[in-house]
Amino acid sequence: MGRNEVTGGEKTVRPKSIRKEDEFHLQITWEDGHESSYNTAALRRACPCAGCVDEWSGEAILDPLAVLDSVKPVRVEPVGHYAIRIVWDDGHDSGIYTFENLRSLCPCADCSRRRG
Ligand SMILES: [Zn+2]
Ligand SMILES: [Zn+2]
Description:
6 strands; 16% helix
């Protein structure tokens, strides 16, 4: 199964719906029926943009402590057929989360166990 590169023919599970579950959680229901509930601050801290993660080394630039636990998504926009962009209420809007990345961030017990 999944390698890191996304190749044309590879099957990526897409979100069927994305909604605000409550003030601190974003819920994604996937096409395969899986449900993920993301803590919004954790999602903000996992921002994969070049301002938050060093593109070359993959090391985090963002200080997790600089992100407030109360950070909230203001807007979620689709990017192509593979990702979403999240605009945060702290003004950060360059994070593009691919579906693959989001799915790999799923914090549920099943996925955590699978990741080992
Ligand atoms: Zn970022
Ligand atoms: Zn999961």
